[in-house]
Specification:
The structure holds two protein chains of two kinds. Chain A has 19 helices and two strands. In chain A, helix 5 runs antiparallel to helix 12 and helix 7 packs across helix 15. Chain A is an all-alpha fold. Chain A is globular. Chain A has two domains: 2-76, no CATH class; 121-418, ABC transporter involved in vitamin B12 uptake, BtuC, CATH 1.10.3470. In chain A, 66% of the residues lie in helices and 3% in strands. In chain A, strands 1-2 form a two-stranded antiparallel sheet. By secondary structure, chain B is of the alpha/beta class. Chain B has two domains: 9-96 and 190-273, Rossmann fold; 106-188, no CATH class. Chain B is 39% helix and 23% strand. Chain B has twelve helices and ten strands. Chain B has helices spanning 54-61, 88-95, 112-118, 121-128, 132-136, 139-158, 174-186, 204-221, 232-238, 256-260, 263-270, 280-285; strands at residues 14-25, 28-39, 43-47, 69-76, 79-82, 97-99, 192-196, 224-228, 241-246, 249-254. Chain B is globular. In chain B, 49% of the residues are buried. The A-B interface holds A 290, 293-294, 297-299, 301-302, 304-305, 307-309, 311-320, 427, 429-434, 438, 440-446, 457 and B 62-64, 88-93, 98-101, 105-111, 113-114, 117-119, 121-122, 124-125, 128, 131, 134-135, 149, 152-153, 156, 162, 165-168, 170-171, 184-185, 187-188.
């Protein structure tokens, strides 16, 4: 809980703790009166304001007690003067390191769970799992650009949109099936990645982020306004569903046997859900496998070197232009794959699905999970998609769905306070000389934050 | 007053020839018509007071700056490379010029070993055939990787970093980081190694070890070393050839002993003689004969 230690007690002892709890309560009161205490409801055609001050009182009381307990707890654990502060990594750091070392085992267990999941749960959970996997795949793709190559990309959703629209346009105009469209979508998105890459080659950090943000918006606005090709805000419908080697997942088919008929099964809509789930699982695994392999290859190491120091890269003869473009292109390619899956899964797409919020969510997944950490992305994707669904799960708590953005933001603030480098930020070396035994110091990738905030390494 | 410019070693052909190099930043002339030659298997030291333009020369040599005027020729395997026309990364890749930086630039989040493997990027990249051979794990790539590991191990031993190979580069002490940067530059298999103040911040023991390392690089590897250094104990002990800059101009060029006694150099470092003589009592205090 490194972040909370900075909020030191204003005074020693109980009275200090009491005062700080009171201050916290006042802050919560000020914050919650407009956000929680007042709500507009419709009544007889006009809006009236209803007051929920009882909820506010509960929250303020909760904040007061919580802060008091925390202060007292911290005071007890605080380092006494003259006593040596315990050195070394925190429990969470050691946990993250252990996760990173045993990444293969944990990944294998996760994979088994992911494969078995559709056979033991409901359609709703399979759909939920599919959602999670789309974000996992997007997170892994963006991880190449942001986590490995260190290029902050705020317009990643543009490539997702390019993939989706490639499938939609090719399927509805040319009549290609999903499997024929998939590689083309990846190729197209990669080409767009290079197109974005060229003008931003000389940019880094904040400047790069702004340009990529603009690029994402350009793509969305083009999709919205190029009426006669993209059908504008009305979107494109009737995108064909994927088939299993030509066997469609439908009750009847005019062209041949359906999946259920071919295998002599009773038709059920859940077969299609399960199939879609496995398609995205396979695509996500492809992304993961590719990233893991690339990290151990010269290109992958050059990506990481580029993140650490671009000038040093040039000095050892690395062509930074090609390396950057390859990171953009490969990251974009996986977004294109994910986009094509998105299009075929829903059968309908419109520019609304590709707003900046999506880019922000994907970036949040990468940053929360821990830059460059594959398992961290999975964890963060599950968390964020769950937060989206929380309103549905906790419907017995009343209109909690209304507070989703509040919870979302709050959760991010807490995670960034407790784990500023992400949940599982621990870099595993791509190659070891002495093998995996022997004590090692923690590797933390250079994300440029330390320099810009003046934090000492 | 004629300028000392008579360095011509026997049996050591020219490796790097700088001719009429001029670098202007707006109205500021950082390097003014500089010409010198660095020879094969020679340690050439580039010295001069602060702001003399030494690092600017390095930046021109390694493609970080494009010189305003001048030609820089690097010989490698009988071929001439005109460095002023090449992109920075090609200068290292084709012409075989590697450099280190005044303020150390390592890939600090990566391990010591990874730093040395990344330095062999171009060799490995060719072997991996746009990563395809690498992704498939073909023998061609594997043997190239094995070679790369052996070269990295060689330099780890040479720089005394073998035990710490799997530690993050940022966790090394300062002197070891300097050595790692040299090892990384050597892993690019250069013909000319350019070192920007390698002894800065080192203690006398580390500085002595550095001398041994540089002498061994010159003698055993047979490559040229170009050195910017303020530490005169390093310069005078190991260099074969010294070039002195002041305000972007070459003021002396020769063997260390000759340069040390060149009055131009003494003036640049200690200042000009006043016209009138010092009062006798002060002259006696500073040990000068009237």
């Amino acid at each position: 809980m490194a972040g909370f230690k900075t909020a030191a007690l204003p005074r020693e002892g109980l009275s200090g703790a009491f005062l700080s709890a009171l201050a916290t309560a006042v802050v919560v009161l000020v914050l919650t009166i407009p956000t929680v205490g007042l709500k507009t409801d419709e009544s007889g055609g006009s809006l009236i304001v209803t007051r929920h001050f009882d909820t506010v009182a509960w929250l303020v009381g909760l904040a007061f007690v919580g802060r008091l307990v925390m202060s007292l707890f911290m005071a007890r654990r605080a380092v006494k003067p003259g006593e040596q502060k315990k050195a070394g990594p925190s429990a969470m750091d050691r946990f993250a390191a252990a996760v990173a070392r045993n990444g293969t085992k944990i990944g294998a267990v996760g994979l088994v769970i992911a494969v078995l999941l559709p056979f033991v749960t409901s359609n709703y959970l399979i759909d939920f799992g599919t959602n999670v996997l789309i974000y996992v795949m997007l997170g892994w793709g963006l991880n190449i650009v942001v986590g490995l190559a260190g290029l902050l990309d705020l317009g990643y959703v543009a490539f997702y949109a390019v993939g989706a629209y490639t499938v939609a346009l090719l399927a509805t105009n040319v009549g290609l099936g999903f499997w024929a469209c998939l590689p083309l979508a990846g190729l197209f998105a990669a080409a767009f990645g290079v197109v974005l890459g060229f003008p931003v080659l000389r940019l880094r950090g904040d400047y790069l982020a702004i340009v990529t943000l603009g690029f994402g918006e350009i793509i969305r606005l083009v999709l919205l306004n190029w009426q006669n090709v993209t059908n504008g805000p009305n979107g494109i419908g009737g995108i064909p569903r994927p088939t299993l080697f030509g066997l469609p997942f439908a009750a009847h088919s005019a062209t041949g046997p359906t999946f259920a008929e071919f295998f002599g099964l009773e038709f059920s809509p859940s077969q299609r859900f399960i199939f879609l789930y496995f398609v995205i699982l396979a695509l996500a695994l492809l992304t993961n496998f590719f990233t893991i392999r690339m990290r151990r290859l010269p290109v992958g190491r050059a990506w990481e070197a580029l993140r650490e120091d671009e000038i040093a890269c040039r000095a050892i003869g690395i062509n930074a232009t090609n390396i950057k473009l390859s990171a953009f292109a490969i990251g974009a390619m996986f977004a294109g794959f994910a986009g094509s899956f998105f299009a075929t899964r829903l059968g309908f797409i419109s520019p609304e699905s590709f707003t900046f919020t999506e880019s922000a969510t994907i970036l949040a997944i990468v940053v929360l999970g821990g830059m460059g950490s594959q398992l961290g992305v999975v964890l963060a994707a599950i968390m964020l998609v769950s937060l989206n669904e929380a309103g549905r799960w906790f419907s017995f708590l009343g209109d909690i769905a209304l507070y989703r953005p509040l919870i979302y933001g709050g959760a991010m603030v807490v995670i960034m306070l407790v784990r500023p480098r992400g949940l599982l930020a621990h870099r595993q070396p791509s190659i070891l000389l002495h093998g995996s035994d022997g004590p090692k110091e923690s590797l933390v990738p250079n994300d440029g934050l330390a320099a810009s905030t003046g934090e000492l390494p | 007053m004629s300028q000392l410019d008579n360095y011509a070693p026997v049996g050591k052909p020219a490796l790097l020839t700088v001719e009429h190099l001029t670098m202007r930043f707006g109205g500021l002339v950082a390097i003014d018509d500089l010409s010198f030659t660095a020879h094969e298997r020679d340690i050439t030291a580039l010295i001069g007071p602060n702001g003399a333009g030494k690092t600017t020369v390095f930046n021109c040599l390694t493609g970080f700056y494009k010189p305003t005027v001048g030609r820089i020729t690097m010989k490698r395997e009988g071929q001439d490379y005109l460095l002023e026309q090449m992109e920075g990364f090609r200068i290292t890749r084709l012409a075989g010029v590697a450099r280190t930086f005044q303020n150390i630039r390592l890939f600090s989040g990566m391990t010591v070993f990874e730093n040395l493997i990344v330095a062999q990027h171009n060799h490995l990249m060719n072997a991996s055939m746009f990563s395809i051979a690498g992704l498939l794990g073909l023998p061609r790539y594997r043997s190239a990787e094995k070679e790369a590991i052996e070269l990295a191990k060689f330099w780890l031993h040479k720089t005394g970093l073998y035990e710490r190979a799997d530690n993050p580069a940022s966790s090394l002490p300062y002197g070891a980081q300097r050595r790692l940067e040299i090892a990384r530059a050597m892993c690019t298999k250069p013909r000319l190694l350019c070192l920007d103040e390698p002894a800065a911040g080192l203690n006398p023991k580390e500085s002595g070890e550095l001398n041994d390392l540089l002498l061994s690089i010159r003698t055993d590897q047979g490559i040229g070393v170009l050195l910017i250094e303020h530490d005169m104990s390093v310069v005078m002990k190991i260099s074969d050839h010294v070039v002195v800059l002041d305000y972007g101009r070459k003021i002396s060029d020769g063997a260390p002993y000759d340069v040390r006694n060149d009055e131009n150099v003494i003036k640049a470092y200690l200042g000009e003689d006043e016209d009138e003589d010092l009062p006798p009592e002060i002259a006696a205090d500073v040990g000068m004969q009237p």
